[in-house]
Amino acid sequence: MPAGRNSECENCAWQRSFDRRARIHVETFDNAGTRQRFDEFCQWLKHEMGAHKAALRLKHYVPFFSFLDSHPVGLPSYAFLLEHFSAEGLRRMQTPMLWLNTRYGVTADEQLRKEHSEKRRIQEMIGSTPAGVGRDALLGYWAYLRTRQANGGTSISSVRLSLRAAKNVMASASQLFDTLPSQKTVTAYLTQTPGQRAAAQGFIGFLNRTHGLSLKTELSARAVARAKNQKLEAKLYGLYSTGGEGEAFERTWIKTALMLLHKVKSVNKKTLNYEAMTMQDVAGFNVVLNAKAYWVPGPTSAPSFASESARRPPDDANE
């Protein structure tokens, strides 16, 4: 026996400590059903973890049973627990959830968890929107989307993505959300983010129907191309301004230069094959991509191809 333990070994000491802590905690519950389940959980926990670890961890699980004690609904369902603890909270309560599954067959519902997470993100999105005409428009659109979802016309994930696009459209008109979009702000937003056109189209149509507007989502290919070039120019000039170096920086530089100067639509910078090459006294890179060779200038001198607009930050803050 270790010194100071008399006739009690360490394992017995932890067994006694765990049982004492369990008796103290169980007295905090008012309902007999909660006390019974907590006692069952304690015996299971001690068997699963051992008395030492179980004694140290037991207090972390008491809030779970305190909630059950204040909501005596019998055997709690996963949906009931999810509504209170949220998906994140239940992740921190994995051990009691494992016990519920082992002892009573209460299993996690992945689809329900996903829906709950999407609803929480939507609530946070709406909650972070300032009060005003813009927020009212978002709330109206949300109600419309919920009706479509209830009728099976869309999913909760699509609802969230549609609302995100709608909020971006409103923010492009005013960061204070105190005015509705105009044709000018809609065109500017979609020109800067052409990939959002499909997602934003539903909200713009909703605004036209409910607010008597005549907003259009058609864009000229020339305007989209010009906006894309301006973004690439601004990004390239931004890279030049940082004075970065190293392989990761070079690959980002080359990818951006290929898209701007050679109109390459898609570049995987991780698989680029390149080597340094000077052309007409300009240091640059010879790049092989999809069996084709390209040359791009390097970041050692100011990019002469960058227009004055490239020296300003891009309009799209999400870039």
Q: Bin the helical content.
A: 55-70%
Strand content range: 5-15%
Q: Into how many domains do the coordinates divide?
A: 3
Q: Which structural category fits the helices and strands?
A: mainly alpha
- What is the straight-line distance between the termini? 66 Å
Q: How many DSSP-defined strands? A: 3
> In terms of per-residue confidence, which ranges show pLDDT below 50 for 5 or more consecutive residues?
307-319
Mean pLDDT: 86
N-to-C SSE series? HHHHHHHHHHHHEEE
Rg, Cα atoms, Å = 30 Å
Strand order of the largest sheet: 1-2-3
Number of helices: 12
Shape: flat
Profile the largest sheet.
Answer: 3 strands, antiparallel
Structural write-up:
The protein has three domains: 10-108; 113-211; 229-311, no CATH class. The chain has helices at 10-26, 32-49, 51-70, 78-92, 94-104, 110-127, 133-150, 156-173, 183-192, 197-211, 221-242, 247-261, and strands at 273-279, 282-289, 292-297. Strand 1 (273-279) and strand 2 form a beta hairpin. The protein is mainly alpha-helical. The model is unreliable at 307-319 (pLDDT under 50). It is 62% helix and 7% strand. The chain has twelve helices and three strands; from the N terminus they run H-H-H-H-H-H-H-H-H-H-H-H-E-E-E.
